[in-house]
TrEMBL record:
Residues 306-332 are annotated as: Disordered. Residues 4-231 form the ABC transporter domain. The keyword ATP-binding applies. This is ABC transporter domain-containing protein. SUPFAM superfamilies: P-loop containing nucleoside triphosphate hydrolases. It comes from Adlercreutzia caecimuris B7. Residues 313-323 have a biased composition (Polar residues). Keywords: ATP-binding, Nucleotide-binding, Transport. Coiled coil: none annotated.
């Protein structure tokens, strides 16, 4: 059964649509990386999925059960923006409060387990007020993990963590997905961490899910490859295919020829022997950052930011919506 599904999910604030007709689904064990520029709507999408905000339109289902507006599910664990931590309680007590509220049968052992899993066991008895940013983040993660949720919604979980903490959280999430089949939806700007963790990606751009792809597809798109630019590309392509039958040549839309399975030397020699004049012979590199920056809408100013080209534009949803009711969000 699907762990999480949303269909045509839309959220507008005073007529401005910041999550626009988003549909996605996670299977158990999926780790889905949500990427997008600042203001793309990632946190808002996670809040609607978590039931913190009512959708303007669309549905959310967890474990096959369709949730009502602002309904949360016992199967969901969330770390979205600042975790709700009582600074006067110890880390352990904070998680214990959550464990008791959930009615866990063996709360003490379960709290101890999650405190250890997030690397807080040594400071579990310290009051949360004295926690560093990274410790607070770990505590937020412990709060999300208590009760063994089937689905985790994590907004920037690596924020504030030191390199060891980042590695620890990454391994923890990978283990939860692999061992327990937990489905994880994680938004992050730390692409190199996502790259080591996720099985699928979704790209959010101005509230719309503009692309979804598997980690393998991203890896293939980001692989370095040899590229040849010649004057008469079709003739050169035919010649190369004949001269180097073990290699694979692909004509690109810009008439460059992409080469797999042959070195620059061999290709250069073959072109020289056939008297083809070469304009360029180079290795094309594209890293994950280039790949996603393109999909996210380039590196221009953030929509809504001061000085941004579209700073004052009024955005309407692709899908129809009604004005949202006030739902307790302080910024609504
Ligand atoms: N309660 C609210 N009322 C009005 N506008 C809001 C509210 N919450 C978010 N927004 C707006 O919605 C847009 C998307 O914000 P959101 O925080 O979801 O983006 P994000 O992709 O998480 O950004 P970042 O990467 O910077 O965290 C922003 O323009 C933001 O100002």
């Amino acid at each position: 059964m699907e762990a999480l599904r949303c269909e045509h999910l839309t959220r507008a604030f005073r007529g401005r649509c910041v999550v626009d007709d988003v549909s996605l689904a996670l299977e158990p064990g999926d780790i889905y990386g949500l990427v997008g520029r600042n203001g793309a709507g990632k946190s808002t999408l996670l809040k609607v999925l978590a039931g913190y905000l009512a959708p303007t339109a669309g549905t959310v289902a967890v474990g096959g059960e369709v949730l009502g507006p602002c309904q949360t599910s016992a199967h969901l664990g969330c770390l979205i923006e600042h975790p709700a931590v009582n600074p006067g309680l110890t880390g352990f007590q904070n998680v214990m409060v959550r464990a008791l509220a959930q009615g866990l049968p063996n709360p003490k052992a379960e709290v101890a387990e999650v405190m250890e899993a997030v690397g807080l066991e040594a400071v579990a008895g310290h009051v949360a007020r004295g926690y560093s940013l990274g410790m607070k983040q770990r505590l937020g993660l412990a709060l999300a993990l208590i009760g063994r949720p089937d689905v985790l919604l994590l907004d920037e979980p690596f924020n504030g963590l030191d390199p060891e903490g980042v590695r620890q959280v990454r391994c923890l999430l990978a283990d939860l997905a692999l061992q327990r089949g937990c489905a994880v939806l994680v938004s992050s700007h730390v692409l190199d961490q996502l790259e080591r963790l996720v099985t699928r990606y979704g790209v959010l751009r101005e509230g719309r899910l503009v692309a979804q792809m598997t980690a393998q597809e991203v890896e293939e798109a980001c692989t370095d490859y040899l590229c040849v630019e010649v004057a008469e590309a079709p003739r050169a392509l035919a010649m190369l295919e004949q001269a180097l039958p073990e290699a694979v040549f692909t004509m690109m839309p810009d008439d460059a020829i992409r080469v797999a399975g042959a070195t620059a030397d061999t290709v250069g020699d073959a072109l020289l022997a056939a008297n083809v004049s070469v304009r360029g012979l180079y290795t094309h590199t594209r890293d994950i950052e280039d790949y996603f920056v393109d999909l996210m809408g380039g590196a221009g100013p953030v929509r809504g930011a001061p000085g941004g080209a579209a700073g004052s534009e009024t955005v309407t949803c692709a899908s129809s919506f009604t004005e949202p009711s006030k739902d307790g969000d302080p910024r609504a």
